[in-house]
Amino acid sequence: MSPQIRQARPEDREALFSICLLTADGGADASALYSDPDYPGLVWSVPYLDFAPDHAFVLEDDGAVIGYVVGTTDTQAFERRLDAEWWPMLAEKYAGREAATKQDKNVLDRIRQPKHGNASISDRYPAHLHINLLPPAQSGGWGRKMIEAELDSLRKADAKAMHLGLSLTNDRAYGFYKHIGLSEIGRDEAIWMGITL
């Protein structure tokens, strides 16, 4: 049976944590960079399962989740909701937790003092997404298919434009996003790419 894209479900939570960790080093395995394997997923995947489930999809192959795409129609509203409901819960859970690595510190700092995206980008491109695929899913057009599923979902919810951010050093992803029609819309500590819907 070939892989299938489906709506994410609550039972996919651990898979989202795992895939996020295994791709958090510019698309490569970041297991050695974090003392807690859940840290990347607390920021870049699992909150969407809880707070934007209509725009959360997974790629499943023979019962195993091998990729995900998550997003939201309104970045600023999503950030406000996380400020009210997600980060305070995590701040309590991780109170007193010390960072063992630089990457741990980045996540713990974000939990304790939430950092928002680039407002000038999200004003013009209100929706955003995150996508991560394990190596077996990184060929065969699955990245494009996952993004198309997400963009269709965002369009149906009346989103007008979408952005995403990527590392300044992630040349492979940059080329992929350009190839599927996204344009560079800004640079700061990240490269911002966007598309009108």
UniProtKB/TrEMBL annotation:
UniProt keyword annotation of Coiled coil present? no
At the top level of its lineage, which domain of life is listed? Bacteria
Keywords assigned by UniProt, alphabetized: Transferase
- One function term, GO molecular function aspect: beta-N-acetylglucosaminidase activity
Q: Which GO terms describe its biological process?
A: glycoprotein metabolic process
Instruction: Write out the transmembrane intervals.
Output: none
Every N-acetyltransferase domain range = 3-197
Pfam families, per database record:
Acetyltransf_1 (PF00583)
What name appears for this protein in its UniProt entry? Acetyltransferase
Which species? Devosia riboflavina
